[in-house]
Design a protein that fits this description.
Order of helices and strands: HEHHHHEEHEEEEEEEEHEH
Number of domains: 1
Shape: globular
CATH topology: Jelly Rolls
CATH class: Mainly Beta
Number of helices: 8
Largest sheet: 6 strands, antiparallel
Distance between the termini: 50 Å
Radius of gyration: 19 Å
Length: 290
Amino acid sequence: MESIYERDGYQLIEGAISQADLQPLRNDINEQITLHARELVNQGKATDLYLNLPFGKRLVALHQEAPLTKRSWPTTAFNPSLYPLINHPAIIDAVEAHVGPDITFVDYLVRPKMPRSESTAFPLHQDSQYYGKASQHAHTVTVWIPLVDVNEKNGCLFVIPGSHKWELYDSARDENSNMRSFVDVEARGTPIPIPMKAGDILLFHNMTFHGSKVNHTDGVRWSVDIRYVRTLGTQATSSTEQAGVEFMFEKMRNVSLHAAMVVRGDGPRWSLEDWQRETESKRAARATST
């Protein structure tokens, strides 16, 4: 009998991680907001650090003075708080059920979905539309983790059940750099909302159509998505899948800020310090080559 993930292309696991597991990342985000606020104040673009506001409101207050244009928070400053989440046993156990015992982390993104922002609403898409055509054959599992409770009002994810079994749809980027399919995918399948509590996790396949709508609340909908693939060179796979995995590793090597890291199975296991060192080495090498 096929699993829920195999049938639908996604799996919601409620209460997989504790609030204590999430708090270090929230703390790191708050620290990055403070650094961002100090920079804005020094530039005369903001009048306050808004230290008295709650987690979901500080960036909103700053955004009202100096609009934020980025849709994710690209930095390695979150590595210390992300390392335990990337290696969290409940997360890795869930991923192992779908890709096998040899697992490599390849990337993460911390995302602030700003209130009433069209640019942080994502049309329905397959992640492989962003990665590239060859990636459709590399099973990549995204683990999506909300840092606040999410619902249709503040922009929870929508997924089309079973769409991971469809072909890769042709697409192109729109004015917000979002991938949009050339055909109406909702004519083939109905997207359903996935409301979640902070502490729940959502796993989905790189071919599963998913997206999110505008955040219609007054707070930021913070989330982090972490991506895993089978470790390169392990397990018996088809030549097509092996080529896809090789493509994904090369793609992430070029676009991700973070070094890929084995989290279970064969291969070297890195401490946080090892990962930080390898990540800095990767950034230095990229800087020299440009």
